[in-house]
Amino acid sequence: MAAAPALEPPVCMEGQILENRVIAPVTRVMKVHAPEAAARMHAGQFVNLLTSAERVPLLRRPMSIHRLVRHHEVASGFYVLYDVVGPGTRNLARMKPGEKVDFVGPLGNAITVPPAARRAVLVAGGVGVGPIKAVAEDLLARGVRDVTVCYGARDYDHSIPVKEAAPDGCRVLVCTDDGSVARKGRVTDLVEDLLRGGRLAPGDYVFACGPHAMFRALRDQLRPFGIAAEAATEEFMGCGFGVCFGCPLRQRQPDGSVAYRLCCVDGCIFPLDTLVFDGDPA
Ligand SMILES: Cc1cc2nc3c(=O)[nH]c(=O)nc-3n(C[C@H](O)[C@H](O)[C@H](O)COP(=O)(O)OP(=O)(O)OC[C@H]3O[C@@H](n4cnc5c(N)ncnc54)[C@H](O)[C@@H]3O)c2cc1C
Ligand code: FES
After folding, report:
1. How far apart are the first and last CA of the chain?
2. Span from the CA of 86 to the centroid of ligand 2 (angstroms)
3. Ligand 2 atom with least separation from CA of 244
């Protein structure tokens, strides 16, 4: 049986920005001091950030918890990692250390790691690298010593340094779509190498975050081997807490039927094999 942590309700509060630094041409990390909220956070969850005091953008922007900050085992804050892609993230990029940022969190469910897992493979496509460091740190803290991160980025501008993607103690494999950093290829090519080399097998813990196309490819790759995975989905969101029905996903039920689930409250983490994507058989 997988060990699911007990989740506490989110809080809405202001945290103090301690850092907001560039780690790749398109990508930033923000460190937020918020002890009350951080004490409730688990790897795999997300926060919903208010990016402006103005009416636009009205909606908060969801971001995965990239890392938890701990001092002597006491949680004091969190990091988010974000690509600057639109008005909300442009506003985030303008925020300065010392300023406050309003957020709701933690939201969503957390990773569930089978207690018997001794090895883990974390698969990140693009900005899906957001939650990877928190997940890797959680696994190392649980005693999972063999952790491999497979990270695929689009190109140089979207590729973050290895030390930002994963904590010390992990093996990190990198590729880019255009070969401008590390090997040219898709992140599933890195997974293929692990499968062929016997470095990924049933019983290993697999966590993935990225676009639907990556999820589909990974699912089809792992299924013949009988390897389960957890998928952290990142659907467009409105409210972030189950009210607007703006973040639906399709999930295969045990009786074979397909039901709609909400990314924000039923996830954002789902068993990969249960998700139904566009193009899948009905
Ligand atoms: C649970 C969750 C966790 C997330 N974690 C992160 C994270 O750690 N780091 C990060 O950078 N982003 C993350 N995102 C995505 C992020 O919330 C969006 O990119 C956000 O909308 C950007 O706001 P914006 O105003 O800058 O751009 P917008 O104007 O909202 O969007 C800019 C462009 O990105 C596209 N876009 C927006 N949201 C999504 C999405 N969910 N999927 C695919 N395309 C999208 C839009 O179509 C548009 O082309 C997460 C989303 C969810 C739901
Ligand atoms: S974002 Fe509103 S229901 Fe999920």
Report:
1. 30
2. 20
3. 2
Q: Which ligand is nearest to the CA of 86?
A: 1
> What is the arithmetic mean of pLDDT over 191-197?
97
Mean per-residue pLDDT for 54-78? 93
Question: Mean pLDDT for the chain?
Answer: 95
Say if residue 226 is in the same domain as residue 173.
Answer: yes
Residues 107-148: tens digit of each pLDDT? 999 999 999 999 999 999 999 999 999 999 999 999 999 999
Domain that holds residue 161: 119-232
Looking at the fold, whether 94 and 49 belong to one and the same domain comes out as yes
> Per the structure block, which two tokens stand in for 140?
């190392």
Between the CA of 236 and the centroid of ligand 1 the distance, in Å, is 7
Q: How far is the CA of 55 from the centre of ligand 2 (A)?
A: 19
Alpha carbon of 263 to ligand 2 centroid (Å): 7
* Contact assessment for residue 259 and residue 266, using Cβ atoms and an 8 Å cutoff: no
Whether 207 and 176 map to the same domain: the answer is yes
What separation in angstroms does the CA of 71 have from each of 16, 38, 77, 78, 134?
16, 12, 10, 12, 15
Supply the CATH number for residue 103's domain.
2.40.30.10
Q: Which of 22, 45, 63, 104 to mutate for ligand 1's pocket (most ligand atoms within 8 Å of CB)? A: 63
Residue type (1 letter), 27: T
How confident is the model at residue 3, as a pLDDT?
Answer: 61
Is the C-beta atom of 57 inside 6 A of ligand 1? yes
